[in-house]
Design a protein that fits this description.
Helices cover about 35% and strands about 5% of the residues. It is mainly alpha-helical. A two-stranded parallel sheet has the order 1-2.
């Protein structure tokens, strides 16, 4: 079992893709990222919020939503839980709409508590507030410092502009 979050695009790729749309007329760009993915750590969550903060700060996105991860019977996690380092709970009794599966995440992270901070930060970011703040200020408890450089997205955008 590989365990751990299987990350997609890195920050530079995300910044470059969003920059291609920023400043255009028409629909605004939004960020969507699922917190609570199996084996996602507190560090992963803090870093995700820092990516989003930087995207707002750079004007690449104007809205966002952290949609909480849900494990379903037909998802890769639901079909292959060992690949994601989780144990599935038995499906509830009943015959209708038995799609969502509860799971045990070995990290023990309380994603509900972290979700409160993510929602609060996004609300403020969408109103142009708190973009200069350390992302840790949004969390009620002690969380680690982000591992991302403070201006990672801005540097990615600058290097893209020079090409």
């Amino acid at each position: 079992a590989s365990g751990g979050v299987q990350h997609g695009n890195g920050g530079n790729a995300v910044g470059n893709a969003d920059a291609g749309f920023s400043g255009q007329t028409g629909p605004t760009q939004g960020a969507h990222r699922p917190p609570g993915f199996p084996t996602q750590t507190v560090q992963d969550t803090v870093d995700a919020l820092e990516y989003v903060r930087q995207l707002f700060e750079a004007g690449c996105i104007q809205s966002g939503f952290f949609h909480r991860f849900a494990c379903t019977v037909h998802s890769p996690v639901g079909m292959n839980p060992a690949d994601y380092g989780v144990t599935l709970q038995p499906l509830p009794a009943g015959t209708f709409a038995r799609n969502d599966i509860a799971f045990i995440d070995p990290t023990g992270v309380n994603h509900d508590v972290l979700g409160v901070a993510l929602k609060k930060a996004l609300y403020n970011y969408m109103h142009g507030l708190g973009l200069e703040e350390d992302v840790r200020t949004w969390f009620s408890g002690k969380v680690p410092r982000t591992t991302l450089a403070k201006h990672r997205i801005a540097r990615a955008l600058d290097s893209m502009a020079r090409v």
